[in-house]
Amino acid sequence: MKTEQLLQSATQFGSPLFVYDADKISQQYHRLTTAFSKVERLQINYAVKALSNVSILKLFHQLGAGLDTVSIQEVQLGLKAGFAPPTIIFTPNGVSLDEIEEVASLGVQINIDNLSILEQFGTKHPNVPVCIRINPHVMAGGNTNISVGHIDSKFGISIHQLPHLLRIIENTDMHINGIHMHTGSDILDIEVFLYAAEILFDTAKHFKTLDFIDFGSGFKVPYKKDDIETNVEELGIKLSKRFNQFQAEYGRPLTLAFEPGKFLVSESGYFLAKVNVVKQTTSTVFAGIDSGFNHLIRPMLYGSYHHIENISNPKGKERFYSVVGYICETDTFANNRRISEIKEGDILCFRNAGAYCFSMASNYNSRFRPAEVLWYEGKGHLIRERETFEDILRNQIEITF
Q1: Local confidence band at 152 (pLDDT 50, 70, 90 cut-offs)
Q2: Are residues 325 and 183 located together in one domain of the fold?
């Protein structure tokens, strides 16, 4: 997006503010479908947890995507956005059987990742098609909190439990129509991904009625200049060839599915915040903004990098700043970062704010969550109003003392 559009958004809608670029979302979606154009049946299921605003979901519906969901609330958002139930897959972890049954009653594709729930569900609902999430025991992902395919992960059914898994399916006579894996986010080495895919192919041979194989996602996007990213074009060439080969061996048409979140929306997002104070200490110059980790927690939670620009003074002389928030504890976005000279009142722009930013925002310190704006067809559209004090009190109940 252009700096003028971002400044216009800050002026019109205030700060702090999340801004999303619909064109970038569309470009990323088409980049992925083009990379796998050699596959006849391809399904891209957007991971709702990355950014769940209903207008964003409607944009993905317009693009032709399905949805990957992890809660019944995300399923309900998808239905509200116009998605047909069969185009939504439900991949929870640690939820109750009741929630899974409620989602299944809506006609949504179920994906189960533990033997206990699989046996209970299969015993009660043997005719409901179920996908199985396999843990391939492959370590992938840029942070231990987002690496979910390793042996100590809480996610998926271990490939070493395959005999037990097959026994449950035989005993319940349940219908398995899909098989799934997800190794983690920020995958750097596609060879590791392809190795995990081979494990999934070998596992798939044990199931004779599959309609799809879901390879998860975790494609890395660049967060800084010259940053490495997942080469989806190379992955598309290699995995498409292997998938088509396996499909021929399997003997029936299969859909290749992915469930990207960050890849589709991260680079589309910008977080705008106003500088409240520039504070010089004995060793540091702090730029304190009108936000904190209550709005953008990734730097504090994951140690993640977000490029920060002073869009009020983009060509100014660069100085070193530590950018901090207003939360009353350590609340740091960046340490000793080179940024164009900052003055109080300037607007700072955080890049890669589309994924796991607003969706992880909170009301910590009783602060309001920001507004959200989507730039679509050359115009900024408000897609979420800034919260008010009434929102903070909405579900609180005062008692009389």
Answers
A1: low
A2: no
